[in-house]
Design goal:
The chain is built from ten helices and twelve strands. The strands form three sheets. The protein has a five-stranded antiparallel β-sheet with strand order 2-1-5-4-3. A five-stranded mixed β-sheet has the order 7-9-10-12-11. A two-stranded antiparallel ribbon has the order 6-8. About 0% of the residues have low confidence.
């Protein structure tokens, strides 16, 4: 048995698996990316420091400039040679281009410690193309001549290429991650089915048993009901007071069992995905009035004031029998669990394109913890009181199933200072 309940569960599990797999894939991709990028930068920093020492040695031995004229012109490699105190410039190879002027403008960010490096991320100077950014790797090392330190040499390497390559690599890795994520979604969908399949088989057997048992119980319960009614109406037989009480108990419990059987069969049909016929146009104003009139006698018997307010011309497309049962469940619960000399308000109106049905009572209310459970089958807030009132613990479960079949929502709210509000919203 694979109905909408298990399909929704399968989709939720697939979503959970997809999130887990997606997070793992992204974590692996970004970890690999960051590790590779860190290794490349670490290697470039070491190589640039070595280059500074090499060029400093070349300058001392042969007077060769650290950077070629072409490198300075292109801005790929720049140099700046000063005394240790920085007061005298020995060699300036920053050039006159925007790159050199930008680096000079940000000289306060140059590395200060010998043999150290620093990445300079800078905006272009005035006169440059708007929003131009420069990325340079800067390194500094001492320059020694015959064992004496005569100055320090700064060298600046343009690493824009590495950033561009890094972004291209990241894009490719994300494309691979996207493909892996699609595969993970398919795998999660398959895995969810494999995990749910045993549960669905068990659930199918349980629902089949419930449906078969409910169906088989209808005939003997009908016979018992007729027999008990016949005994109660037999005026020729003189029963003792105990026998009369026993017959009354049999009638009461038989009616209760009949109601339980009907509810179980209705819930079994809803679980199987057998939806009601949603092609009938229903006058909900008239249906609410009929249900209100039907239960007004129960309200009078308990000393409860039943107030009814229905907007005119409320119509929707749905199953009239199911909606009638929904209204009876909501109103019957409110009356059943309301003390005498209180008021129950039953309203129906149009609100934002929805039919809003509200039943307010002034009973003891429902705790926040119980609100999460009252729609569970056979759950009753006050089990002893519910049993004495004839409660089965199936009413709200059936009400929720009917509301879902009509693509609506049902909520439980507090009716301050005391009581409960059952609010049903159905699309018109």
């Amino acid at each position: 048995m694979w109905n909408k309940i298990f399909e929704r569960l399968r989709l939720r599990m697939t979503f959970t698996y997809a999130v887990i797999f997606g997070v793992l894939i992204l974590a692996i991709v970004f970890t690999a990316y960051c590790f590779i990028w860190w290794e490349i930068l670490a290697n470039e920093k070491q190589e640039l420091v070595k280059k500074v020492y090499h060029e400093a040695e070349e300058w001392v031995n042969s007077g060769e400039n650290p950077c070629s004229d072409n490198s300075v012109k292109e801005g790929s490699m720049l140099a700046y040679f000063v005394t240790m105190d920085g007061k005298k410039v020995i060699l300036n190879q920053l050039g006159d281009g925007n790159c050199g002027r930008t680096i000079w403008k940000h000289r306060d960010r140059w590395p200060q410690k010998m043999d150290s490096t620093r990445i300079l991320r800078m905006h272009g100077v005035d006169g440059d193309v708007p929003n131009t950014r420069y990325r340079y790797l800067a390194a500094v090392a001492p320059v020694k001549d015959k064992g004496e330190t005569i100055g320090k040499l700064y060298m600046f390497e343009n690493i824009e290429f590495y950033y561009a390559a890094a972004f291209r690599t990241l894009f490719k890795l994300l494309c691979v991650a996207a493909l892996l994520f699609v595969f993970a979604c398919y795998f999660g969908y398959w895995l969810a089915e494999r995990n749910i399949l045993p549960i669905s088989h068990m659930y199918a057997r349980q629902m089949q048993f419930t449906a078969d048992a409910s169906h088989e119980m209808r005939t003997p319960l009908a016979v018992m009901k007729l027999a008990a009614q016949g005994l109660a109406e037999d005026e020729d037989s003189s029963y003792s007071e105990f026998a009369q009480e026993s017959i009354g108990m049999i009638q009461s419990e038989t009616a209760r069992m009949s109601k339980l059987t009907e509810n179980l069969m209705a819930l079994a049909r809803s679980d199987e995905g057998i939806l009601p016929n949603l092609k009938t146009e229903i006058n909900m104003t008239e249906l609410c009035r009929q249900v209100g009139a039907q239960l007004s006698l129960l309200a009078q018997e308990k000393g409860i004031v039943l107030q009814q307010h229905f907007a005119e011309n409320l119509t929707l497309v749905g199953d009239e029998t199911a909606l009638n049962r929904l209204l009876v469940i909501l109103l019957d619960n409110a009356l059943k669990y309301s003390p005498a000399n209180t008021t129950v308000v039953f309203t129906a109106a149009k609100s934002k394109g929805q039919l809003l049905i509200v039943v307010k009572d002034e009973g003891c209310g429902i705790s926040d913890e119980d609100k999460k459970k009252v729609f569970d089958r056979f759950y009753r807030v006050d089990k002893a009181r519910s049993r004495s009132q004839g409660g089965l613990g199936l009413g709200l479960s059936l009400a929720q199933a009917i509301v879902k079949q009509h693509r609506g929502t049902i909520k439980i709210l507090d009716n301050k200072p005391c009581g409960t509000i059952m609010q049903v919203s159905l699309p018109l």
